[in-house]
Design a protein that fits this description.
Helix content is about 35%, strand content about 25%. The protein has helices at about 20-35, 65-70, 80-85, 105-110, 125-130, 165-175, 195-205, 210-215, 225-230, 250-255, 265-285, and strands spanning about 50, 95-100, 115-120, 135-140, 155-160, 180-190, 220-225, 235-245, 290-300. The longest helix is centred in the C-terminal third of the chain and has 18 residues, at about 265-285.
Length: about 300
Protein backbone atom coordinates (compact mmCIF):
# COMPACT_ATOMS: atom_id res chain seq x y z
CA UNK A 1 0.00 0.00 0.00
CA UNK A 2 1.33 3.38 -0.91
CA UNK A 3 1.77 6.13 1.62
CA UNK A 4 0.28 9.58 1.18
CA UNK A 5 -2.49 10.98 -0.94
CA UNK A 6 -2.51 10.31 -4.65
CA UNK A 7 -2.97 13.52 -6.64
CA UNK A 8 -4.34 13.53 -10.16
CA UNK A 9 -4.37 16.21 -12.80
CA UNK A 10 -8.00 15.94 -13.83
CA UNK A 11 -10.18 18.44 -11.99
CA UNK A 12 -13.97 18.59 -12.43
CA UNK A 13 -15.34 21.74 -14.01
CA UNK A 14 -15.78 24.81 -11.80
CA UNK A 15 -13.64 23.39 -9.00
CA UNK A 16 -10.28 24.22 -7.64
CA UNK A 17 -7.78 21.47 -6.89
CA UNK A 18 -5.30 22.59 -4.30
CA UNK A 19 -2.02 20.76 -3.86
CA UNK A 20 -2.24 19.34 -0.35
CA UNK A 21 1.20 20.15 0.96
CA UNK A 22 1.28 23.64 -0.52
CA UNK A 23 -2.22 24.38 0.74
CA UNK A 24 -1.41 23.14 4.21
CA UNK A 25 1.67 25.36 4.50
CA UNK A 26 -0.07 28.41 3.06
CA UNK A 27 -3.16 28.18 5.24
CA UNK A 28 -1.18 27.37 8.36
CA UNK A 29 0.86 30.52 7.88
CA UNK A 30 -2.13 32.67 6.99
CA UNK A 31 -4.32 31.51 9.85
CA UNK A 32 -1.72 31.30 12.61
CA UNK A 33 -2.72 34.54 14.34
CA UNK A 34 -6.39 33.56 14.50
CA UNK A 35 -6.38 29.83 15.11
CA UNK A 36 -3.04 28.96 16.65
CA UNK A 37 -0.05 27.24 15.15
CA UNK A 38 -0.92 24.07 13.29
CA UNK A 39 -4.54 24.10 14.48
CA UNK A 40 -6.45 26.07 11.90
CA UNK A 41 -10.12 25.41 11.34
CA UNK A 42 -9.58 26.54 7.78
CA UNK A 43 -6.54 24.36 7.25
CA UNK A 44 -6.04 20.87 5.95
CA UNK A 45 -6.84 19.23 9.28
CA UNK A 46 -10.53 20.19 9.26
CA UNK A 47 -11.33 16.59 8.37
CA UNK A 48 -9.61 14.49 10.97
CA UNK A 49 -10.02 11.03 12.39
CA UNK A 50 -10.78 12.15 15.90
CA UNK A 51 -11.33 10.78 19.33
CA UNK A 52 -13.84 12.73 21.34
CA UNK A 53 -14.38 13.03 25.09
CA UNK A 54 -17.64 11.64 26.39
CA UNK A 55 -18.97 15.05 27.37
CA UNK A 56 -19.22 16.03 23.72
CA UNK A 57 -22.04 13.41 23.34
CA UNK A 58 -21.96 13.23 19.53
CA UNK A 59 -25.00 10.95 19.34
CA UNK A 60 -27.36 13.35 21.14
CA UNK A 61 -25.83 16.83 20.95
CA UNK A 62 -27.99 17.93 18.00
CA UNK A 63 -31.32 16.76 19.44
CA UNK A 64 -32.51 20.28 20.26
CA UNK A 65 -30.98 21.73 17.07
CA UNK A 66 -32.50 19.36 14.53
CA UNK A 67 -35.07 21.79 13.09
CA UNK A 68 -32.54 24.58 12.56
CA UNK A 69 -30.01 22.07 11.22
CA UNK A 70 -32.46 20.80 8.61
CA UNK A 71 -33.46 24.30 7.50
CA UNK A 72 -30.24 26.28 7.58
CA UNK A 73 -27.15 24.11 7.14
CA UNK A 74 -25.41 24.38 3.74
CA UNK A 75 -25.50 21.71 1.09
CA UNK A 76 -22.50 20.46 -0.92
CA UNK A 77 -21.35 21.29 -4.45
CA UNK A 78 -22.55 19.00 -7.22
CA UNK A 79 -18.98 18.77 -8.52
CA UNK A 80 -17.98 17.07 -5.26
CA UNK A 81 -20.70 14.46 -5.75
CA UNK A 82 -19.51 13.96 -9.35
CA UNK A 83 -16.01 13.22 -8.14
CA UNK A 84 -17.08 10.87 -5.35
CA UNK A 85 -18.92 8.57 -7.78
CA UNK A 86 -16.50 9.04 -10.68
CA UNK A 87 -15.88 5.80 -12.61
CA UNK A 88 -18.42 3.88 -10.50
CA UNK A 89 -20.94 3.41 -13.30
CA UNK A 90 -24.47 4.75 -13.59
CA UNK A 91 -25.71 6.38 -10.38
CA UNK A 92 -28.97 4.42 -10.48
CA UNK A 93 -26.98 1.18 -10.10
CA UNK A 94 -25.31 2.27 -6.86
CA UNK A 95 -26.21 1.34 -3.30
CA UNK A 96 -24.89 3.95 -0.86
CA UNK A 97 -24.67 4.02 2.93
CA UNK A 98 -24.52 7.61 4.20
CA UNK A 99 -23.33 7.50 7.80
CA UNK A 100 -23.84 10.32 10.27
CA UNK A 101 -26.47 11.44 7.78
CA UNK A 102 -28.27 13.82 10.13
CA UNK A 103 -31.25 15.29 8.31
CA UNK A 104 -30.19 13.76 5.00
CA UNK A 105 -28.68 16.81 3.30
CA UNK A 106 -26.06 14.77 1.44
CA UNK A 107 -28.22 11.65 1.12
CA UNK A 108 -30.66 13.56 -1.07
CA UNK A 109 -27.89 14.65 -3.45
CA UNK A 110 -27.19 11.00 -4.28
CA UNK A 111 -30.85 9.96 -4.32
CA UNK A 112 -31.69 12.73 -6.76
CA UNK A 113 -29.23 11.12 -9.16
CA UNK A 114 -31.01 7.79 -8.87
CA UNK A 115 -28.89 5.98 -6.29
CA UNK A 116 -30.47 3.88 -3.55
CA UNK A 117 -29.36 5.35 -0.22
CA UNK A 118 -29.54 4.19 3.36
CA UNK A 119 -29.12 7.22 5.62
CA UNK A 120 -27.86 6.19 9.06
CA UNK A 121 -27.69 8.44 12.13
CA UNK A 122 -27.77 7.78 15.88
CA UNK A 123 -30.06 10.71 16.58
CA UNK A 124 -33.79 10.02 16.04
CA UNK A 125 -34.65 13.71 16.29
CA UNK A 126 -32.41 14.48 13.32
CA UNK A 127 -33.80 11.60 11.27
CA UNK A 128 -37.38 12.62 12.07
CA UNK A 129 -36.83 15.99 10.40
CA UNK A 130 -35.18 14.60 7.29
CA UNK A 131 -37.05 15.36 4.08
CA UNK A 132 -38.35 12.04 2.80
CA UNK A 133 -37.31 10.69 -0.59
CA UNK A 134 -38.46 7.54 -2.36
CA UNK A 135 -34.87 6.39 -2.87
CA UNK A 136 -33.72 6.96 0.74
CA UNK A 137 -34.29 4.64 3.67
CA UNK A 138 -33.54 6.14 7.08
CA UNK A 139 -32.11 3.97 9.86
CA UNK A 140 -30.84 4.49 13.39
CA UNK A 141 -27.27 3.40 13.98
CA UNK A 142 -23.70 4.55 14.46
CA UNK A 143 -20.69 4.50 12.17
CA UNK A 144 -19.12 1.87 14.39
CA UNK A 145 -22.27 -0.29 14.46
CA UNK A 146 -24.51 0.51 11.52
CA UNK A 147 -26.72 -2.56 11.72
CA UNK A 148 -26.50 -2.83 7.91
CA UNK A 149 -25.97 -6.12 6.08
CA UNK A 150 -22.45 -7.19 5.15
CA UNK A 151 -21.01 -6.78 1.64
CA UNK A 152 -24.05 -4.80 0.50
CA UNK A 153 -22.89 -1.32 -0.52
CA UNK A 154 -20.92 0.14 -3.40
CA UNK A 155 -20.13 3.35 -1.52
CA UNK A 156 -19.98 4.51 2.08
CA UNK A 157 -20.04 8.27 2.65
CA UNK A 158 -19.59 10.54 5.64
CA UNK A 159 -20.46 14.25 5.40
CA UNK A 160 -19.48 16.68 8.14
CA UNK A 161 -19.34 13.88 10.74
CA UNK A 162 -16.07 11.96 10.40
CA UNK A 163 -14.57 13.79 13.36
CA UNK A 164 -17.14 12.20 15.69
CA UNK A 165 -16.23 8.62 14.78
CA UNK A 166 -13.79 6.25 16.48
CA UNK A 167 -11.30 5.40 13.70
CA UNK A 168 -10.54 1.70 14.17
CA UNK A 169 -14.06 0.31 14.67
CA UNK A 170 -15.39 2.68 12.01
CA UNK A 171 -12.92 1.45 9.39
CA UNK A 172 -13.75 -2.15 10.32
CA UNK A 173 -17.46 -1.45 9.88
CA UNK A 174 -16.84 0.25 6.53
CA UNK A 175 -15.00 -2.85 5.32
CA UNK A 176 -17.75 -5.11 6.59
CA UNK A 177 -20.66 -3.42 4.82
CA UNK A 178 -18.85 -2.58 1.57
CA UNK A 179 -18.79 -4.82 -1.45
CA UNK A 180 -15.42 -6.28 -2.37
CA UNK A 181 -14.44 -3.33 -4.57
CA UNK A 182 -16.37 -0.63 -2.78
CA UNK A 183 -15.38 2.96 -2.12
CA UNK A 184 -15.44 5.29 0.89
CA UNK A 185 -15.59 9.08 0.97
CA UNK A 186 -15.33 11.61 3.81
CA UNK A 187 -16.46 15.18 3.15
CA UNK A 188 -16.33 18.38 5.16
CA UNK A 189 -17.30 21.99 4.56
CA UNK A 190 -14.59 24.36 5.79
CA UNK A 191 -15.19 28.08 6.05
CA UNK A 192 -12.69 30.49 4.52
CA UNK A 193 -11.01 32.28 7.41
CA UNK A 194 -9.41 34.82 5.11
CA UNK A 195 -12.89 36.23 4.45
CA UNK A 196 -13.69 39.23 6.71
CA UNK A 197 -17.31 38.19 7.38
CA UNK A 198 -16.28 34.63 8.21
CA UNK A 199 -13.50 35.78 10.49
CA UNK A 200 -15.77 38.12 12.43
CA UNK A 201 -18.41 35.39 12.84
CA UNK A 202 -15.78 32.91 14.02
CA UNK A 203 -14.37 35.28 16.62
CA UNK A 204 -17.88 35.82 17.96
CA UNK A 205 -18.81 32.16 18.36
CA UNK A 206 -15.42 31.20 19.76
CA UNK A 207 -15.90 33.81 22.47
CA UNK A 208 -18.77 31.80 23.93
CA UNK A 209 -17.02 28.59 24.99
CA UNK A 210 -13.88 26.51 24.75
CA UNK A 211 -16.06 23.80 23.22
CA UNK A 212 -16.83 26.10 20.31
CA UNK A 213 -13.12 26.49 19.67
CA UNK A 214 -12.57 22.74 19.93
CA UNK A 215 -15.35 21.84 17.50
CA UNK A 216 -14.43 24.61 15.07
CA UNK A 217 -10.76 23.69 15.00
CA UNK A 218 -10.99 19.95 15.50
CA UNK A 219 -9.35 17.65 18.00
CA UNK A 220 -7.42 15.38 15.67
CA UNK A 221 -5.34 12.28 16.22
CA UNK A 222 -4.52 11.67 12.57
CA UNK A 223 -5.48 12.85 9.07
CA UNK A 224 -8.20 11.22 7.04
CA UNK A 225 -5.87 9.92 4.32
CA UNK A 226 -3.76 8.06 6.86
CA UNK A 227 -6.87 6.66 8.57
CA UNK A 228 -8.20 5.42 5.23
CA UNK A 229 -4.93 3.74 4.33
CA UNK A 230 -4.47 2.16 7.74
CA UNK A 231 -8.07 0.97 7.50
CA UNK A 232 -7.39 -1.09 4.39
CA UNK A 233 -8.22 1.33 1.57
CA UNK A 234 -6.02 2.21 -1.39
CA UNK A 235 -5.73 4.90 -4.07
CA UNK A 236 -6.60 7.51 -1.46
CA UNK A 237 -7.11 10.87 -3.10
CA UNK A 238 -8.22 14.33 -2.11
CA UNK A 239 -10.00 17.16 -3.92
CA UNK A 240 -11.24 20.56 -2.82
CA UNK A 241 -14.27 22.36 -4.24
CA UNK A 242 -15.25 25.97 -3.67
CA UNK A 243 -18.85 27.00 -3.15
CA UNK A 244 -20.89 29.65 -1.35
CA UNK A 245 -23.66 29.64 1.23
CA UNK A 246 -25.92 32.70 0.80
CA UNK A 247 -28.17 33.68 3.70
CA UNK A 248 -30.68 36.36 4.59
CA UNK A 249 -30.81 37.50 8.22
CA UNK A 250 -33.23 34.77 9.33
CA UNK A 251 -31.09 32.08 7.72
CA UNK A 252 -27.92 33.50 9.24
CA UNK A 253 -29.40 33.44 12.74
CA UNK A 254 -30.77 29.94 12.12
CA UNK A 255 -27.39 28.76 10.91
CA UNK A 256 -25.80 29.87 14.19
CA UNK A 257 -28.63 28.29 16.21
CA UNK A 258 -27.90 24.94 14.54
CA UNK A 259 -24.42 24.83 16.11
CA UNK A 260 -24.43 22.40 19.02
CA UNK A 261 -21.96 24.43 21.07
CA UNK A 262 -23.82 27.77 21.15
CA UNK A 263 -26.56 28.90 23.61
CA UNK A 264 -30.19 28.77 22.50
CA UNK A 265 -31.81 30.75 25.29
CA UNK A 266 -31.19 32.97 28.28
CA UNK A 267 -28.67 35.77 28.64
CA UNK A 268 -26.06 33.92 26.64
CA UNK A 269 -28.33 33.63 23.63
CA UNK A 270 -29.34 37.29 23.92
CA UNK A 271 -25.67 38.30 23.72
CA UNK A 272 -25.13 35.93 20.80
CA UNK A 273 -28.17 37.25 18.96
CA UNK A 274 -27.02 40.85 19.42
CA UNK A 275 -23.56 39.98 18.13
CA UNK A 276 -24.95 38.18 15.10
CA UNK A 277 -27.23 41.10 14.32
CA UNK A 278 -24.32 43.52 14.40
CA UNK A 279 -22.22 41.31 12.10
CA UNK A 280 -25.13 40.94 9.69
CA UNK A 281 -25.67 44.70 9.60
CA UNK A 282 -22.02 45.32 8.76
CA UNK A 283 -21.72 42.71 6.02
CA UNK A 284 -25.13 42.33 4.32
CA UNK A 285 -25.23 43.32 0.68
CA UNK A 286 -27.79 45.64 -0.88
CA UNK A 287 -30.22 42.74 -1.27
CA UNK A 288 -29.93 41.78 2.39
CA UNK A 289 -27.69 38.73 2.06
CA UNK A 290 -24.44 37.61 3.65
CA UNK A 291 -22.26 34.87 2.19
CA UNK A 292 -20.02 32.22 3.69
CA UNK A 293 -17.39 31.11 1.16
CA UNK A 294 -16.70 27.42 1.68
CA UNK A 295 -13.99 24.97 0.73
CA UNK A 296 -15.50 21.49 0.53
CA UNK A 297 -12.78 18.93 1.18
CA UNK A 298 -13.29 15.40 -0.09
CA UNK A 299 -11.22 12.31 0.60
CA UNK A 300 -11.99 9.07 -1.17
CA UNK A 301 -10.43 5.63 -1.13
CA UNK A 302 -11.10 2.35 -2.89
CA UNK A 303 -11.20 -1.10 -1.42
CA UNK A 304 -9.28 -3.26 -3.87
CA UNK A 305 -8.09 -6.06 -1.60
CA UNK A 306 -10.54 -8.99 -1.45
CA UNK A 307 -12.05 -9.68 1.93
CA UNK A 308 -10.29 -12.54 3.75
Amino acid sequence: MRSGVEKRDVVPARTEFVDEMAAQKARAAENEDVHGEGDSAGGSNILMAMSHPSDFSPTTRFSDRAEDYAKYRPTYPQAAIDWIIEEMGLPNTLRIADLGAGTGIASRLFAERGAQVVAVDPNPEMLALAKRHTRIRFATGTAEQTGLPASSFDLVTVFQAFHWFKPEPTMAEFRRILKRRGRIAAVGNSRDYQDAFTLEYSKLIESFSDEAKAVERGRGVGPVAETFEQGGFERVQRREFRHFHRMDEESFIGYARSASYLPRDGAGYNRLRAGLGAIYARHADTQGYVVFPYLTKVFRGDRTTPRK
